[in-house]
UniProtKB/TrEMBL annotation:
Keywords: Antibiotic resistance, ATP-binding, Cell membrane, Membrane, Nucleotide-binding, Translocase, Transport
Compartments where located: Cell membrane
GO term, biological process aspect, one: doxorubicin transport
Main location class: membrane
Nucleotide-binding listed as a keyword: yes
Protein name: ABC transporter
Lineage, highest ranks first: Bacteria, Bacillati, Actinomycetota, Actinomycetes, Streptosporangiales
Family: Belongs to the ABC transporter superfamily. Drug exporter-1 (DrugE1) (TC 3.A.1.105) family.
GO CC entries: plasma membrane
Amino acid sequence: MIHTTGLARRFHSGRQTVHAVRGVDIDVAPGEVVGLLGPNGAGKSTTLRMLTTLLAPTAGSATVAGYDIRTDPLAVRRRIGSIGQGNGSFDGLRTREELQAQGRFYGLDRHTARRRADELLQRLQLSGQADRDVAKLSGGQRRRLDVAMGLIHRPPLLFLDEPSAGLDPHSRSNLWEHVTGMRAEHGTTIVMTTHYLEEVDAAAQRVIIIDHGRIIAEGTPDQLKSKVSGDLVTVELADPGDRSAAATIAAGIPTAHEVAPGRDAVSFRVSHGDTVTPEIVRALDAAGIRLRGTQVQRPTLDDVFLSLTGRSLREDHG
Ligand SMILES: Nc1ncnc2c1ncn2[C@@H]1O[C@H](COP(=O)(O)OP(=O)(O)OP(=O)(O)O)[C@@H](O)[C@H]1O
């Protein structure tokens, strides 16, 4: 669905050259949901703007939905939906009309455009605004209309650049419900960026981590997390006096590392916490050590970024 080779973009600002994207190779298969993750200024939006034909690359090549972004940008545009940062809607129309006009623009007949517009207005909680002037919508309502505009023609490939920005939690969850529904029903391919790591984690099958205009890692969220030092397993002891004996048993587990006895618990890292937990519970039980509980904490995508770069994504995004 997407194939890029050495895709790059630089900008000249004053005397300086900014290498926003420094040659990325991206392959996305039909039906995949891929998240682009990286700190502010990493090059995510620039990459999406090239793939959606809004910006010409300065080097490299890309085909999107079967067409070359350089030679066939119009063919690309007809096959994609794009919900970008700061998409503007046109003023002067009412909300429903605007959405229907967008559907008609993409070749839907009047009846289908109307039906889908009403469905999206309802899903994105804009039914009450259907007959209001677009110019009179609040910021959040306009944002939801932008989202609806990107979805009306049910594109086989959807780009979402920070789709949740400016949406309240309720609208955000409606948006994701609709997007995942589209994928389940129509096999929509989705490429997204979001600052909400939990959204990438929950929705993306594959994550591409970008930093300083380059891809520094990619894989499923689980693959990426398993490259980090592993899951944190904590066993809580009924008797704090058992902690050194428990720590010795934990240290004996193959692959266990960073064994840390606490006041009334012992924690350690292993690559697969869920499989190791029953093993340590059995070993502690056999040694007569009683437990109050166990916990397995999976690393987050932020831990992954931290281990790759020494910086936290959250430092940028709050
Ligand atoms: N039109 C432009 N002129 C000059 N520099 C630009 C331009 N657009 C982007 N840049 C620079 O290119 C780099 C990458 O920007 P980009 O917007 O792609 O990052 P991003 O990963 O999407 O960040 P964010 O998460 O903040 O949206 C930044 O250093 C940015 O300042």
